[in-house]
């Protein structure tokens, strides 16, 4: 809270200063150039399957919206605050933008996403009823991934003269860029000198296997608003970041997924279908794709209009962004990176399924201000407690056990308990219940998979036969007479036979 107050004071202080001198930008594109769609192709080439994951994320978001409409879930009350880290990657001094320019960008984002932007009065009356407050705010992170205090800005001097959408160099420390912070705790925004007249790009939700690349990239000349952004051009009001974060929250370009077509869509009901992007600062009504009488919504942040002519998200766009934040990006909702808090969390070093007598390594994954003490409690484990940060525990008996971690420092503490977190199996194949009646269950030890099971009567006749590809299986024995049978079990560990008794 102290850091946020200082940021607000700094913004008020600089607002009282005379305007800075304006600089002609190095790049002068003919119109807004967002490379988000092109970047998805780059990701797909590097990590095949990304597009499928993004489609799955869209389906989950749409399912969330459907449940909202049916009243099955309540929308989160109040606003959502997303912690942001700006990675400034610079070659020349002019690219190493000031803290004040970044503070200005944060102010633009908060105004645009809460619809407190002064230019909302420019929204035409016929679209104003569709515009809304997204209920999304942004703060500079106050703690880094190591739990150290930060101002939410990193600065990296690079030998690279520029960065391209065709690769991830700006996001790679080994290629002159800066590494991402945990995308489940932060929105990563990289700022640098972008080549090919590109203003920025973003990752869509769902790119789970490329978490180190998740976030937004901005040309350094687009960050913040004048006078803190000193570049005298059409993109000095901070709306490139608003546009790209819209993509990061799942929104497509308002004209759809292609160019110059009425047959595609952005998937949002209350944005008019339009033929192609609008550039510059249009005036009046532009009718395309039979969207009269009001025409294209060129005031929308997801069009290609100049910064000065963008001023709105629609209510359905807002519903979609909220759905993304409650599905594929939901971990950000419990981030403590804004408020300097502390949140305990942990995971097993390997799959939380072991055989009796095996050891399990635990890893502290807590976030927030760095803890100084750790207290673990292991139900059924040896030792039963530990003060190590990443302890090793042995489980001697089969069962499902809870694990509790309490972390603390001189100012605060946090506790996380995960019930039935560890499952311990027998060390050999088990068939139960004994005796069986209507069904029989076959369970292999951890790390062993079944292949095939057969139930054979006392004269060698196969009564049941089933292929299995899991560790456990259940066979129905409801139609078999009472008696003694033999279960032949083939698994990844070989073949063995168990006696089974069925009673009626």
From TrEMBL:
Q: Which residues cross the membrane?
A: none
Q: Which SUPFAM superfamilies match?
A: Metalloproteases ('zincins'), catalytic domain (SSF55486), PKD domain (SSF49299)
Q: Give the source's domain of life in one word.
A: Bacteria
Residue ranges annotated for the PKD domain, each copy included = 356-429
Query: Where does the record locate the signal sequence feature?
Result: 1-21
Offer an example of a GO molecular function term for this protein. metallopeptidase activity
GO BP, one example?
proteolysis
Q: Which UniProt keywords apply?
A: Disulfide bond, Hydrolase, Metal-binding, Metalloprotease, Protease, Signal, Zinc
Name the family the entry cites.
Belongs to the peptidase M43B family.
Protein name, per record: T9SS type A sorting domain-containing protein
According to its UniProt entry, this protein's organism is Pontibacter fetidus
């Amino acid at each position: 809270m102290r850091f946020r107050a200082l940021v607000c004071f700094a913004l008020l202080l600089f607002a009282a200063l005379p305007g800075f001198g304006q600089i002609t930008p190095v790049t002068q594109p003919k119109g807004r150039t967002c490379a988000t769609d092109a970047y998805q192709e780059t990701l797909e080439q590097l990590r095949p399957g990304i597009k499928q994951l993004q489609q799955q994320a869209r389906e989950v978001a749409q399912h969330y919206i459907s449940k909202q409409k049916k009243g099955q879930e309540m929308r989160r009350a109040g606003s959502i605050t997303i912690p942001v880290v700006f990675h400034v990657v610079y070659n020349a001094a002019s690219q190493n933008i000031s803290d004040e320019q970044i503070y200005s960008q944060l102010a633009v984002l908060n105004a645009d996403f809460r619809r407190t932007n002064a230019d909302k009065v420019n929204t035409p009356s016929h679209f104003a009823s569709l515009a809304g407050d997204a209920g999304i705010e942004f703060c500079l992170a106050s703690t880094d991934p190591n739990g150290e205090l930060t101002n939410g800005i990193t600065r990296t001097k690079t030998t690279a003269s520029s960065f391209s959408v065709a690769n991830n160099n700006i996001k790679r420390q080994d290629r002159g860029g800066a590494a991402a912070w945990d995308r489940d705790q932060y929105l990563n925004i990289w700022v640098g000198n972008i080549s090919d007249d590109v203003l920025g790009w973003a990752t869509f939700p769902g790119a789970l296997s490329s978490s180190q690349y998740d976030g937004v990239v901005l040309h350094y000349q687009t960050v913040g608003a004048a006078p803190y952004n000193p570049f005298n051009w059409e993109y000095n009001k901070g709306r490139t970041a608003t546009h790209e974060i819209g993509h990061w929250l799942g929104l497509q370009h308002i004209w759809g997924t292609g160019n110059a077509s009425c047959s595609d869509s952005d998937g949002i009901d209350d944005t008019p279908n339009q033929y192609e992007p609008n550039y510059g600062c249009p005036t009046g009504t532009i009718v395309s794709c039979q969207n009269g009488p009001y025409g294209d919504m060129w005031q929308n942040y997801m069009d290609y209009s100049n910064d000065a002519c963008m001023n709105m998200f629609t209510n359905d766009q807002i519903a979609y962004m909220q759905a993304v934040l409650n599905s594929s990006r939901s971990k950000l909702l419990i981030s403590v990176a804004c408020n300097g808090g502390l949140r305990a969390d942990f995971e097993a070093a390997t799959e939380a399924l072991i055989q009796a007598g095996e050891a399990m390594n635990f890893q502290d994954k807590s976030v927030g201000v760095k803890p100084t003490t750790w207290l673990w409690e292991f139900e059924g484990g040896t030792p039963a407690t530990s003060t190590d940060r990443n302890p090793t525990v042995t489980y001697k008996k089969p069962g499902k056990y809870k694990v509790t971690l309490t972390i603390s420092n001189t100012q605060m503490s946090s506790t996380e308990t995960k019930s039935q977190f560890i499952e311990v199996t027998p060390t050999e194949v088990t068939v139960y219940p004994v005796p069986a009646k209507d069904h029989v269950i076959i369970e292999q030890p951890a790390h062993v998979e079944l292949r095939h099971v057969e139930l054979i009567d006392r004269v060698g006749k196969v009564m049941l036969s089933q292929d299995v590809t899991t560790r456990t299986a259940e066979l129905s024995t409801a139609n078999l007479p009472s008696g003694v049978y033999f279960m032949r079990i083939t698994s990844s560990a070989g073949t063995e036979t168990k006696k089974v008794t069925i009673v009626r």
